Amino acid sequence: MTNYKFNLVNSMKTTLKRAVVFLGILMVVVSIASPVCAQVLVPRVTVGVEKADSPEEVAVTIQILIFLTVLTLAPAILIMMTSFTRLIVVFNFMKQAMGTAQVPPSQLLIGLSLFLTAFIMSPVISEVNKTALQPYLNQEISQQEALEKAQIPVKAFMLRQTREKDLALFISLSKIERPQRAEDIPLQVLVPAFVINELRVAFQIGFILYLPFLIIDMVVASVLLAMGMMMLPPVMISLPFKIILFVLADGWNLLVGSMVASFR
């Protein structure tokens, strides 16, 4: 019992010494670092509304706000006014038809759709850069003229992919006068007509993609039923056959080639 008390007292003394040494080191470090911290300048950020000296300052501020708003709407513009909609819908149909719920991942399909969209839209982007962006950067045309010229190749691309039936629907819904030329169709009419046509074409392609994989499912289910293996899920057996069929037919090459050719 005496030895236990002696050991306990020694351990308490050791712990107390260590605590004193640690506090001493901490005080030395704080005393050294305090002059350095005093020399560090912390910036102050302020947001306020001040009186403008000229109308040009207000115009520049409004332009910056409009530019930031356009940046927030950039994903919607990319989806609604390019080939992205048809590509991503068809790729998802292909994944569901094969029965691979997680392969390829959705992020991979979205990335592939974005790169294919840039490839398909490259002539339109080049035309916009040549006729609108570069003259505006060289201060040859105004901002309004640049926007009007940039709309021409984009409208031409969407008009090639849009049916007259869809355009007539939205023209009648918007209750505007019938445009005399295709170039006079406003974007608020052309964009929704273009989108519903893209969805129609994507669903048609998806139906065609489903047919060969559906035949494989039916054949496998019939064979399993004839063999009396009704407890075995047909999807488990048909999935390898679907994958090998897609690989042997060079499915990615055919699918991507057909999708790109459908826009040209």
Number of helices: 11
Tell me the fraction of residues in β-strands, as a range.
under 5%
Helices and strands, in N-to-C order?
HHHHHHHHHHH
Helix content: over 70%
The main pleated sheet reads as: none
Arithmetic mean of pLDDT: 76
Taking pLDDT < 50 over at least 5 consecutive residues as the criterion, the unreliable ranges are 1-6, 36-40
Envelope shape: extended
- Separation, N- and C-terminal Cα atoms: 96 Å
Compute the number of strand runs: 0
Judged by helices, strands and strand pairing, the structural class is: mainly alpha
Rg from Cα:
33 Å
Structural commentary:
The protein is mainly alpha-helical. It has eleven helices and no strands. It is extended and about 75 Å long.
